[in-house]
Amino acid sequence: MHTSTETLLEVDDLHTSYGNSQVLFGLSLKMKPGETATLLGRTGMGTTTTVRSILGLVRATRGTVRFRGERIDHLSTDRIGRMGIAVVPEGRMIFANLSVEENLRAFSANRNHSQDPWTLERVYDLFPRLKERRQNMGNQISGGEQQMLAIGRALSTNPHLLILDEATEGLAPLIREDIWHCLATLRSHGQSILVIDKYVQKLLTLADQHTVMERGRVVWQGNSDELGASPDIWHRYIGV
Question: pTM higher than 0.90, yes or no?
């Protein structure tokens, strides 16, 4: 669902290293507002480092990251978050010593100045199971419920861009379907989403565009129709 021709996120010629070990080699991608995009690749190929570079958790050694027209690769992670990028990190990282509701309230904001913002009740409407568990502590709910909570927490900031790193990793098939349904609902509402996952068949119906990575480099980019017609790309680089 495209809402504008302007660029929401632009990553250009990004090089990132951890010490002497270079991980990204000239990565570039663009997203428009309202798009759903993917980063695809086997574990260790640079998808998570790309997310960390966008968020300022690791500094690029070369290249630029622009968000809503403003260069952000020199900014702090906190500042980048307040500009309207929210992440559902690999491992979820919810607060175990806070209740479900306290986790959701802790980050509540309206960073995209929405006229119909994500409130606590809207998150509960999206994930009724969280409402049932609202008094449970973060460590007293299942892995699937923790992932729902991590998504709800990110949405409660009302971000311009929602990033999900390993969106359905380790989840039971039924819970995985719940997450896909949730992302389809968000997409239909115009939420911009960047998702990392390995279930290409599901992502073909969800995403507008795809970036495939191998050893820190972009090896293929295109839309869902093009990726659907290129099963060799799946098998060579994604392992399906």
Answer: yes
- Beta strands (DSSP E) in the chain are 9-18, 21-31, 36-40, 60-67, 70-71, 85-88, 161-165, 192-196, 209-214, 217-223
What gap in Å lies between CA 192 and CA 195, rounded to an integer? 10
Q: What is the pLDDT of residues 186-228, one digit of tens each?
A: 999 999 999 999 899 999 999 999 999 999 999 999 999 999 9
Question: 179: helix, coil or strand?
Answer: helix
Q: Tell me which amino acid residue 211 is.
A: T
* Pairwise CA distance, residues 33 & 98, whole Å: 33
Q: What is the pLDDT of residue 5?
A: 52
Residue closest to 54 by CA, chosen among 71, 73, 34, 39: 73
Give the integer Cα–Cα distance in Å for 217 and 215.
Answer: 6
Which tens digit of pLDDT belongs to each residue from 80-127?
999 999 999 887 788 999 999 999 999 899 999 999 999 999 999 999
Residue 197, token pair as written in the block: 């996952």
Distance CA(102)–CA(238), nearest Å, equals 37
Q: Token match 């994604």: residue?
A: 238
